[in-house]
Amino acid sequence: MFDPRSEAMSIDERSALQRHRLWGLVDRLLAAGGVQGRRLKDAGVTGGSDVTLAGLARLPFTTKQDLWDHYPFGMLAVPRDQVAAVHGSSGTRGRPTLVAYTRADLDLWAAMCARSLSCAGAVPGSIVHNAYGYGLFTGGIGVHQGAVALGATVVPMSGGMTGRQVQMLADLRPDILTCTPAYALRLGEAVAEAGVELHALKAGLFGAEPWSEELRAAIERVLPIKAMDIYGLSEVIGPGVATECLEQDGLHVNEDHFVVEAVDPSSGEPVEDGTPGELVFTTPTKQALPLLRYRTGDLASLNRRECACGRTLVRMSKIIGRVDDMIVVRGVNVYPSEVERVLLGSGLVAPHYQLVVDRRSPAVRLLVACEALHGDPRDELVRALHESLGLTAEVFTLPPGTAPRTETGKAVRVVIWEDGRPPLPGLG
Ligand code: DLL
After folding, report:
1. What is this structure's pTM?
2. Ligand 1 site-directed mutation target among 260, 279, 319, most atoms within 8 Å of CB
3. CB-hemisphere CA count at 13 Å for 299?
4. Which residue ranges form the domains of the chain, and what is each CATH number?
5. What is the pLDDT of residues 261-314, one digit of tens each?
6. Looking at ligand 1, which residue's alpha carbon is closest to its atom 29?
7. Helix, strand, coil: what percent of the chain each, to 5?
């Protein structure tokens, strides 16, 4: 563990710490006088000491819309000149979400990413090949700073230029690989094509997009590693919010800094542990952009059982999907990750695929484009998708190597076909 004192502290001690920090957050939000402070006042909160952990669920939510409405700096809780960096996400809806960090926030972020790396087995002296994109996106720079804080050697590759990545993997012999899961697959393919053996590589820390257990198995087949999940979002801090430990059984949420709740996406009411809900985060220790009950749109369940790794931090399941990513096909609701699970679990197709939602007519069609490993898997996949998801999809096979591969950024699993030519050749 990077910080055993915090990661393995007793539940009671952590609750006391959270409560104390939450008071401080509420006082800072009230003093900053922005939208979050005004909502607290409207809810009758006059100071931090009015708030308890148990009462958190009664406080107002904050949403992405708030960040957009006060873009770019309207939600700062510190003077602008104390902002040491900005980052953000291009967002799935095309609108950037910008976030700000003070120097202390950057230190916190580095410590959180150092925890993540050590969750995956990295130690001081490890070589971390970091193929998350560098720039406004938080993946590259976040993991980079975490590797430095841990005392590891970071190789700042960023995404793309796959040939160069393979050469660096072969020459520098990293033990840890960090990138999106889709790019890990692409790298695995390229490493095999180049005939390179990666004997030193032990683990990968993959995130920034949803990926199923079946994709994990596919990555572990093409790369000689344990593939671990890392979750985060720019608004909360970036990568380092939650990470799987080597037990690979849920992601430990750094809840001493990011208090997590799971709520029913429609009613906003808390759901029981073990029940999937929308993740909501409160960031009691962040300075520049502290958030009270931020609704992520990400669906997962929480689990407070003990973990064999010794961390006492609550675990979240892998992300099931986003509230707004659900595909509705003729009344059947399905998340892309569920389709991925069936496709890859069948063993009939390569782990590269594309879903196309054909909305050219009111009878929406779901087209699944994939690469067959052998024979013609279409009928069997249509049957398997129908059996597990209750969904009638049309399956198309593409020639090997032609399903879109992700080289940079997040994998785009679903494209919408509104009109005109098919988004992929061969789709009818
Ligand atoms: O993707 C931060 C990050 C970078 C996390 C590198 C992990 C590794 P954003 O660009 O703001 O930040 O996108 C955040 O990505 O709300 C989720 O919908 C999705 N996401 C992030 N990690 C995971 C994951 C970064 N492990 C949004 N599994 C989040 C599923 C993930 N979805």
Report:
1. 0.96
2. 319
3. 18
4. 1-323 (3.40.50.12780), 326-417 (3.30.300.30)
5. 999 999 999 999 999 999 999 999 999 999 999 999 999 999 999 999 999 999
6. 233
7. 30, 25, 45
